[in-house]
Here is the input.
Amino acid sequence: MANENPKLAATQAARLAGKKAIRSYARKLADPEDIKDLNITPMMDMMTIILVFLLKSFTSSATLVNLDQNLSLPPSQTRLAAKQAVPVTITKRVLLVEGEAVAPITNGRIDPQLKRDGDNGYYITPLVEMLSKVARREKKVAEVTGQKFDGELTIIADRNTPYRLLTEILYSCGQAEYANFRLLVLKSRE
Amino acid sequence: MTTRQVRGRMRRMRERFEEAEEEHIEINLVPYMDIVTNIIIFLLASVVNQVPLGTVNVSSPTFGGAGGDGQPDKPALNLTVTVGGTGFTLAGSGGVMPPIPKLPTGDYDYGALTAKLAEIKKEFAEETKATFNADAVTSYEIVVKTLDAMRTYKDEKDQQEKQLFPDIVFAAGIL
Here is the structure.
């Protein structure tokens, strides 16, 4: 008995030590001390919401204008914000409707051959044709959406555009049923 | 429990744990996060650098009668502001006013134009329409500045910005 008891005690001690080591290892596996991966899902949620918000505000800005040496807008003290409308752009070199070139401009004048009544005429034929197409499309859209066709244009003109050219363009726009104009300007507080 | 048994149990435990980890795989969101961060920085930069744009509303002349139901005792103003080579000319139903010459610096006297229009506005408080006309060579910048001078003025008494003639119509022809 005396010989058996120390043996039994040693076996039990070894078993206990073994179990203790296993438990300790299991705890170590279950709770690693160093964090392997940071949970970035909430951050992703937040960033996606910010992205959607910024994209929305970016695309809903009324007019995107590329200002360069051929197009510099005049300053104005207006407080009216820019609104979405068909853009007619008058640069130093070209006249554009919705970003598509309609007629070249040389020294602040449209080529007389592009005007119905020659040099003294106001009717710029390609501009009227292009705007008539746009007006037909806008009317169809207005009809489908149940809104009223307001005949509004945004005029984006270079600050040195002569009044004669501006008048010719506004007259031609009027011939294509566009009679209300929003002159796009740079807001200033001078 | 022998050392061998303990090691065997630990190995099995580790294998089970690794199997469980392999089953629970997460999508690697880091590349997506990189893209989103770049787009956000780009969008924020473009929003900050956005040019402040505004509009000035004008319209083409409309044709047709003035309407027969108006008050006959109130004559129409028919105010026309013309930008000429030497300065501004104001005209109305009553006749043509003395011209507002350019400043000695060669600039147009927008302040004097606003002051004169404010005087007219006191007489015709209800009127909001005015016609604009200019020389063929007048630049668009001068046109916009003149329209600014025609639209609002600052009242000296209460320092409030008040409307002058905000409904501006471009004349059918030019000078």
